[in-house]
């Protein structure tokens, strides 16, 4: 195989793998991006705070089951092949996401609504548990050792880009219709669009060939007969699984979800930043930060994976409190001067889809730095709901983008090199199974529970920064374990392997 053909082949592999993984992340994260609206649609409206926490818990369930998906699909991938396994996970994910967009709300089918959402969220989590390990392994097994960090870093961009695409689709949908229409039925559009993206990705992936390393193993009859036993029943390999979890994936998971999902949750639910502005802040920060996944993946081929990941965890843990305190001050109206002459009240009466009268009253306060605070009171059938929205000035908007961007840099440091790190840690015959489980426990359990745990801590303590205790603690513990127990081995081509404990 000549060099030009080999280069073309690896980029085809990266594009096909990344496109499918991006779409799976898009499917998975629509739920989180719309969590506030979903809490109103699929849960009782008697206690909005409890409904929101229940929605975050349902969101977290998808993460909790990811390790089970890793076991099921990891075993399938090590026995049958990488390609067909991540084709299957793609279809499961796409079908589940599309179905969520069709479920009637709580007001229509009652308790059945959250039950159906929970079942489909479980299916999403199982599918994602099998997707990432397959895509990362597939790309890594096409990559030369000395470029593995660089090539696999393109897979690492897909999670962030999937979140970015989900936010983009939601924003475009929201801007193209009225707020009332979006809240009534427009929020379903991003879910329903999933089916088109999945079919496109399936068409791209079906043309791929199986991984060359796995093909060779299969031809030689050396594939694992029992990947689960070899991965977790073998004492030495189990040590590596535990090291991958507690020395890398656990800390990476909380840094990832703090810098992206908790940042969005904090903007919307703690700071009460208006829906469009909060999504723009996250989307712009993600777009600016995404190239750094590739930079740190490439750098890890030169100086090693461990140094970059551990440094990212340490800096993140030290920086979170001052960053979030600065974010919180930006929307703190107690620190601002109100322009009383600009105070106004707006009112309207309309009819909703059920024919009920909707009375809406909005009190608008303007402050000297151009911040506007809207207190919206909505009354439907004698039920009154009060919401507060903060619209910050363009200067403050740019400042918040910068603060979230810094967090995304931390994300790229811990996440950019980790695919290469995990792939190199385990032998080819059980790689899919062995790497998938610690990755999805670290991200799915420790990371996925973060928004719900952090929001609950804020609710219980009344302290806006209390939620940060969880990610900071996990990141520091993981960093200490990683520094002590991870050993890197330098080859003639650079840092391409991780030695045993």
UniProtKB/TrEMBL annotation:
The chain crosses the membrane at residues 12-38, 50-73, 85-103, 109-129, 150-173, 185-204, 240-263, 275-296, 308-327, 397-425, 437-458, 464-486. GO terms for cellular component: plasma membrane. Its main location: membrane. Residues 13-490 form the Major facilitator superfamily (MFS) profile domain. PANTHER family: MAJOR FACILITATOR SUPERFAMILY TRANSPORTER (PTHR43045:SF7), SHIKIMATE TRANSPORTER (PTHR43045). SUPFAM superfamilies: MFS general substrate transporter (SSF103473). It is a multi-pass membrane protein. It is found in: Cell membrane. This is MFS transporter. It comes from the Bacteria. GO terms for molecular function: transmembrane transporter activity. PROSITE patterns: MFS. Keywords: Cell membrane, Membrane, Transmembrane, Transmembrane helix, Transport.
């Amino acid at each position: 195989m000549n060099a030009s053909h080999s280069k073309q082949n690896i980029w085809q592999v990266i594009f096909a793998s990344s496109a499918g993984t991006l779409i799976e992340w898009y499917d998975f994260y629509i739920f989180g991006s719309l969590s506030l609206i979903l809490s109103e649609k699929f849960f009782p409206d008697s206690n909005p705070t409890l409904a929101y926490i229940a929605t975050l818990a349902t969101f977290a369930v998808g993460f909790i089951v990811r390790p089970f998906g890793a076991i099921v699909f990891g075993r399938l991938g090590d026995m049958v092949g990488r390609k067909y396994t991540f084709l299957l996970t793609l279809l499961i994910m796409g079908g589940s996401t599309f179905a969520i967009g069709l479920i009637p709300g709580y007001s229509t089918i009652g308790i059945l609504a959250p039950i159906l959402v929970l079942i489909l969220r479980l299916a999403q989590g199982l599918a994602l548990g099998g997707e990432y390990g397959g895509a990362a392994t597939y790309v890594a097994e096409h990559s030369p050792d000395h470029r593995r960090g660089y090539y696999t870093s393109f897979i690492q961009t897909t999670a962030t880009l999937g979140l970015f695409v989900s936010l983009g689709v939601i924003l475009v949908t929201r801007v193209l219709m009225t707020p009332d229409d979006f809240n009534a039925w427009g929020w379903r559009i991003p879910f329903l669009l999933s089916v088109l993206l999945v079919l496109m990705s399936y068409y791209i992936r079906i043309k791929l060939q199986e991984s060359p390393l796995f093909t060779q193993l299969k031809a030689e009859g050396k594939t694992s007969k029992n990947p689960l036993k070899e991965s977790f029943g073998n004492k030495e390999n189990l040590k590596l699984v535990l090291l991958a979890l507690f020395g890398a994936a656990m800390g990476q998971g909380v840094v990832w979800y703090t810098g992206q999902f908790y940042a969005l949750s904090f903007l919307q639910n703690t700071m009460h930043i208006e829906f469009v502005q909060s999504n723009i802040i996250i989307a712009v920060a993600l777009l600016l930060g995404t190239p750094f996944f590739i930079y740190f993946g490439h750098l890890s081929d030169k100086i090693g994976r461990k140094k970059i990941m551990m440094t990212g965890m340490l800096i993140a843990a030290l920086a979170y409190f001052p960053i979030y305190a600065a974010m919180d001050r930006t929307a703190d109206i107690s620190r601002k001067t109100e322009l009383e002459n600009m105070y106004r009240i707006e009112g309207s009466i309309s009819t909703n889809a059920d024919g009920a009268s909707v009375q809406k009253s909005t009190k608008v306060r303007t402050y000297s730095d151009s911040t506007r605070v809207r207190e919206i009171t909505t009354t439907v059938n004698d039920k009154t709901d009060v919401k507060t929205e903060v619209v910050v000035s363009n200067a403050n908007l740019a400042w918040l983008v910068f603060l979230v961007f810094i967090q995304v840099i931390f994300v790229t440091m811990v996440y950019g090199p980790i695919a290469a790190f995990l792939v190199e840690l385990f032998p080819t015959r059980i790689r899919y199974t062995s790497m998938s489980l610690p990755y999805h426990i670290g991200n799915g359990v420790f990371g996925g529970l973060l928004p719900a745990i952090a929001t609950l801590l804020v609710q219980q303590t009344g302290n806006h920064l209390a939620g940060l205790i969880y990610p900071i603690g996990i990141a520091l513990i993981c960093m200490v374990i990683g520094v002590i127990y991870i050993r890197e081995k330098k080859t003639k081509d650079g840092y391409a392997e991780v030695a045993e404990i």
